[in-house]
Automatic annotation (TrEMBL):
UniProt cross-references to NCBIfam families, sorted A to Z: PRK00742.1, PRK12555.1
Localization (cell): Cytoplasm
SUPFAM superfamilies per UniProt: CheY-like (SSF52172), Methylesterase CheB, C-terminal domain (SSF52738)
Gene this chain is encoded by: cheB
Homology family: Belongs to the CheB family.
UniProt name for this protein: Protein-glutamate methylesterase/protein-glutamine glutaminase
Active site: 180, 206, 302
UniProt note: domains: Contains a C-terminal catalytic domain, and an N-terminal region which modulates catalytic activity.
PANTHER family per UniProt: PROTEIN-GLUTAMATE METHYLESTERASE/PROTEIN-GLUTAMINE GLUTAMINASE, PROTEIN-GLUTAMATE METHYLESTERASE_PROTEIN-GLUTAMINE GLUTAMINASE
SMART domains: REC
Domain Response regulatory residues, every copy: 4-121
GO CC terms, sorted: cytoplasm
Residues recorded with modification 4-aspartylphosphate: 55
Organism whose genome encodes this protein: Sphingobium jiangsuense
Amino acid sequence: MKTRVLIVDDSATMRALLSRMLGSEPDLEVIGTAADAQQARVMIREMNPDVVTLDVEMPGMNGLDFLEKIMRLRPMPVVIVSGVTRKGAETTIRALELGAVDCYAKPDGSIMNLLDHDGGALANMVRSAARASQWRGSGGRAAAPSPAAAAVSREAIALSAGISAGRTGVPAQLIAIGASTGGVEALHHILPSFPQNCPPTVIVQHISAAFAPAMADRLDKQCAVTVRLIESGMPLLPGHVYVAPGNDRHAVVGTAGRLTATMKPGDPVSGHRPSIDTLFESVARSLGPAAVGILLTGMGQDGARGLLAMRQAGAHTIAQDQATSTVYGMPRAAADMGAAEKILPLPRIAERALAVAGL
């Protein structure tokens, strides 16, 4: 059965290109295109698409306002198709916070570059969105954790784990996080809980390089900790969160004299660059039991093997559970291979990681 897609974009040329790109896939069907939110609203009601691709900069009601209405009134998987200008990137990150499944970057220059350089990326995002577990069976997205649900005490988690620090009795010195589809929303639930004295935290989130700076900037504004993009060779400091830029290098952690992060060239690992597996495996080698690994929502298996390496090195490892994952691919792979010491819902992950760090 084909995945039915509605394309919403104010550009007739872009609508035609996206229709051509997606319509050529045997498992996808473009059932319609809309030029604005008003037209899209009618088509959603009449056609009930499986996935919507949505431009965020449109006349009349903009994409963000429309997305908010979709998620409140008729929740469904949405893939944002956005320009890579600063304004477009910031708006896209906000859309991911609101519940969009993924973001697709329109190229700089001629939009005809889409046909030459897409490589099936948009189609894969649509497929992933169609499988997003938040919309299955319930008719809508999983609700964001309420403050009451999120307020799980550190003491309760520490007692349930039987520990409050690493297996060596030393609090964890670093937290490593990997995420993909749905990860931006998940990070915005987790990181605001981190205090200013938290261990240095390194993140690989599968996201376009065009959107990574805006993601880091927005997290920095919303969190007590300082959030920065990784620069090769930079020291890792307490109270800081470091996000790997989406580019052609891998993020790795080392401890030659001091704890540092470096961006290293290399082929894609587990289909990605930067790869979560590469980050986790470097943490396992460098820190052993003095680390926490967290694998969040995402498509595929990147991070599962690396999380297993961390667990085998004595680190504490956490995977997000199925109920709160947008796509239960990466966490499932980790659970299946025994890489996750704990499988937890999103509201409990930060508290568990901080308890292991002795906070």
